[in-house]
Structures are given as structure tokens and as C-alpha cells.
Automatic annotation (TrEMBL):
It catalyses: 3-phosphoshikimate + phosphoenolpyruvate = 5-O-(1-carboxyvinyl)-3-phosphoshikimate + phosphate. It is an enzyme of class 2 (transferase). The keyword Phosphoprotein does not apply. Phosphoenolpyruvate binds at residues 28, 101, 129, 176, 358, 403. Keywords: Amino-acid biosynthesis, Aromatic amino acid biosynthesis, Cytoplasm, Transferase. This is 3-phosphoshikimate 1-carboxyvinyltransferase. Residues 1-11 have a biased composition (Polar residues). Monomer. Belongs to the EPSP synthase family. GO terms for molecular function: 3-phosphoshikimate 1-carboxyvinyltransferase activity.
Length: 449
């Protein structure tokens, strides 16, 4: 069992063709950042298309605890009355970020240069995840932290009363670490510099510029150098959150492996720091086309059309592509099981410290469903069974990880026998409408309550 309070087993049965339009919810990364930056601006930020998943709702509650006024006007329309950079009040109680690594790490960064003391906690998954990757750079600003052994939550951070700016080379490819340092840099006088060797998702940089911060990004021999000038007055924004490519991945991949399918997923951002999965699927021979390509809010966007693709081939995913598809390896492994030949995924040890150890979680479940998976610390390889699909017929553990649960549900749609997850409840953290949306396309999902 995964260990959630009330585990909800879910079963996916082999289904007929999937067809129709899949309107996936707002982008999780941009939703967190909209709330946090809105809370650090002076005045009212208005947001539409906010992802109303549990992770983001926990961030909204946290921003309220820091003194921002957060209002839900219904149907994805929210407003945030910010308190300004450096204006966070000390919360009266523990901040519970639930399942969300992005939420907790970004909020730690945002409060670390304010003279307040905050205790953070999360669910059983989040409380196992490494936080030193964030608290180490935050210490350079002058923030102190005490957590459980191994730098785990629950953890208290005492923000720096007199923060100093920092130059930090991010040692792991992580947008969360980069963003935590940039958010901390907002309330440090002078220039905070972050250097990353591999380009990770760049929503923080783009949104900070949108909120009026002085920020530059340069590609140099030492890496991507991001320079932020501290103590700006952030100006409130009107934000339309684009739809989440990481959620789009599930109906897209389901359509590729379920015979006869043809699904349209409109309005998906193809920011190169996020679109690695779609490039990889096309490299494998997927019938995935970009329709109505356009620019929205400065970002490339397209409607994705995915059709059943019985001729996909195994592929060696370039390791340098990993950051642009880091959340999509679990669902890629399901597609790889339906390709012919082996798919090799290397340079992916970050997968071991996500909501679960995603290599292990997928490898164990895929093997139980009759798929050969080889793995080592930094790579894994799936041997495809071709379009006949996998035997299935297993109960797989989701380990409190939404993307693991959804990946096995997609596997069951094409498997010869039903696939069950012990707990589908984590799906609500990022894709609360997953079950009705997939059912409307033709999926057969049962939830055992
Ligand atoms: C995210 C960054 C990624 C990703 C997560 C969202 C973000 O994590 O896995 O789902 O919004 O910054 P890392 O930055 O730790 O790779």
C-alpha cells in the first residue's frame, strides 16, 4: 500500500478507440508561481485557468498564511492581493504543502530572506524527499534551517534578517532549486546570480520579468547565467495559465497505444524546456501532429492531435533532453512497452527523488504486467512488446505519486487484462479531472471506494 489516509484502488480495463477533445487543466508549475509571485507583488494579480489540484490549493493556503489575500472567484478565476517583496508575515501555524515538492521548495525560497520563522511539513511522500538541495543555497543568503535527519521535512526555516545576495551554481538539474534561489534573491539587496549547466523549465525567469523584476539570462561557456536585481517592486499581473503539457501527456500517450484512437488536445504549451516528450514520441514514429501552431502569452502553443500508432520503434532518448521531459518518463515507459525494440532512458537519476522513486515504481509495476525492464541508478530500459500490448493483470503500487497512478491507468487501457493501482487518490494533486476526462474519450476506469 502507498500509505495515504484512505487509499482508493482504481482499475483500468482494455477499451475501444479513444476519441474526442481532451481539455486538460492549467499548468501546475505556472499555477504555483502565479500564486507565489502574486503574493509578492503590490496590488491585485488576477489569474484565470489556475490548476485547482491539491498541490496548488496547498500553495494558495500557504500564501494566505503569509498575509496575502487569495480569493477563488470560481471556474479557475482567482485573485491574489500581494504584500510586496519582503512583506511576508509569520504564519501562525505549520505550513503543510501536502504532496508538493514544487510548492514547498518555492515557498521556502520566497520566505528565506524575510525575518520570519516558518515550519514546513507535507505528506508521507514529501516528508521523504531531499530538502538540502534548497536549504544549502538558502543558507548562503543567511537563512537557517533545522529539519529531520537527511534534511527532510518537517523542517523549520529561520529567514535571514539581513540577507546578502548570492552567486549559486545549481549542482542538480532542477528548476525548483533554481527558482527557490531566485525567489530568495528578490528580497536580497544587489544582484543574485544563478548558473545552471542544463536548461530546466524557465517559467520563473519569464514570470519574474513579466512581474517587472530586472532579470537577464545569458548562455555562456559556464552555462546558463541568470542575474536578478534584488528588491524590485513587483507589479501585479493578469495571468492566463496555459494548459499543462505534463497532463496532456496522458491522453496523448493513451491515444497512441489504444487501437483506432484519434484525440485532440487543444492549447498545449510547447515551450522547449517542457516539450521533450512530444519530440521523443515523434522520434519513435508516433502519429502526433501539431495543429494551429501559434504564440500565446509569448509562448509557442499548438493543438496536439494523437492517433493510434502501431509502428512505433524503441528509441535512445538523448540524456540532454531529460530536463525538458523529466515528469514524462513514467508515461513514456508505457508507450515504450508498446513500441518494437528497446527504449533506453539515461541521465535520469533525478527520477529517483520525485514524489516516488519513479524508476523503481514503474519498473516493478511494468514487470508485474509482463514487460521486461532493466535499470541502474541513472538509467532504465524498457523492451517493447509491440502493438499487441502487454499482458497486464497486475495490481501496481502508486507510492503516493500521481504520475505513477495515471501511467498505470493508461497502461490498462491497452493491456490484455485489467491493470489496478492500489491508490488512485494522488491523481487529484495535479489532474483532478483525469477520470471523467479519460472516460469521456472512451476509457473504462473503475474506482473502488
Ligand atoms: C517543477 C520542476 C521539476 C518537476 C516538477 C515541477 C517546477 O522538478 O519535476 O514537477 O515547477 O519547477 P525539479 O526542478 O526538481 O526537477
Amino acid at each position: 500500500m502507498s500509505g495515504s489516509a484512505t487509499p482508493t484502488p482504481m482499475t483500468s480495463h482494455r477499451c475501444g478507440p479513444l476519441s474526442g477533445i481532451a481539455d486538460v487543466p492549467g499548468d501546475k508549475s505556472i499555477s504555483h508561481r502565479s500564486l507565489i509571485l502574486g503574493a509578492m507583488a503590490v496590488g491585485e494579480t488576477r489569474i484565470s485557468g489556475l490548476l485547482e489540484g491539491e498541490d496548488v490549493l496547498d500553495t494558495a493556503k500557504a500564501m494566505q498564511a503569509f498575509g496575502a489575500k487569495v480569493t477563488n472567484h470560481g471556474d479557475g478565476h482567482w485573485s491574489v492581493h500581494g504584500v510586496g517583496v519582503g512583506g511576508f508575515a509569520e504564519p501562525d501555524n505549520v505550513i503543510d504543502c501536502g504532496n508538493s515538492g514544487t510548492g514547498v521548495r518555492l515557498i521556502m525560497g520566497a520566505m528565506a530572506t524575510c525575518p520570519i520563522s516558518v515550519t514546513f511539513t507535507g505528506d508521507a511522500s514529501l516528508n521523504k524527499r531531499p530538502m538540502a538541495r534548497v536549504t544549502d543555497p538558502l543558507a548562503l543568503f543567511g537563512a537557517q534551517s533545522v529539519g529531520r535527519s537527511g534534511g527532510r521535512l518537517p523542517m523549520t526555516i529561520v529567514g535571514a534578517a539581513d540577507p546578502v545576495p548570492v552567486r549559486y551554481e545549481v549542482p542538480v538539474p532542477s528548476a525548483q532549486v533554481k527558482s527557490a534561489v531566485l525567489l530568495a534573491g528578490l528580497n536580497a539587496p544587489g544582484k543574485t546570480v544563478v548558473v545552471e549547466q542544463e536548461a530546466t523549465r524557465d517559467h520563473s525567469e519569464r514570470m519574474l520579468a513579466g512581474f517587472g523584476a530586472e532579470i537577464t539570462v545569458e548562455d555562456t561557456d559556464e552555462g546558463r547565467v541568470i542575474t536578478l536585481t534584488g528588491r524590485p517592486e513587483l507589479k501585479p499581473q493578469v495571468i492566463e495559465v496555459p494548459r499543462d503539457p505534463s497532463s496532456a501527456a496522458f491522453p496523448v500517450c493513451a491515444a497512441l497505444i489504444v487501437p483506432g484512437s484519434d484525440v485532440l488536445v487543444p492549447g498545449i504549451g510547447l515551450n522547449p524546456t517542457r516539450a521533450g516528450l512530444f519530440t521523443t514520441l515523434r522520434d519513435m514514429g508516433a502519429d502526433l501532429t501539431y495543429e494551429n501552431e501559434r504564440i500565446e502569452g509569448g509562448e509557442p502553443v499548438a493543438d496536439l492531435r494523437a492517433r493510434y500508432s502501431p509502428n512505433m520503434k524503441g528509441f535512445v532518448v538523448p540524456p540532454e533532453r531529460a530536463a525538458s521531459m523529466i515528469d514524462e518518463y513514467p508515461i513514456l515507459s508505457v508507450v515504450a512497452a508498446h513500441a518494437s525494440g528497446q527504449t533506453m532512458m539515461a541521465g535520469v537519476k533525478e527520477l529517483r527523488v520525485k514524489e516516488s522513486d519513479r524508476i523503481d515504481a514503474m519498473a516493478v509495476g511494468l514487470r508485474a504486467c509482463g514487460v521486461t525492464v532493466d535499470e541502474a541508478e541513472d538509467w532504465w530500459a524498457v523492451t517493447g512488446l509491440g502493438p499487441e500490448g502487454v499482458p497486464g493483470g497486475a495490481i501496481c503500487e502508486s507510492h503516493l505519486d500521481h504520475r505513477i497512478a495515471m501511467s498505470f491507468m493508461v497502461l490498462g487501457m491497452a493491456a490484455q487484462n485489467p491493470v489496478t493501482v492500489d491508490d488512485g487518490s494522488p491523481i487529484a494533486t495535479s489532474f483532478p479531472i483525469f477520470t471523467p476526462l479519460m472516460a469521456a474519450l472512451g476509457a473504462k476506469l473503475d474506482t473502488q471506494t
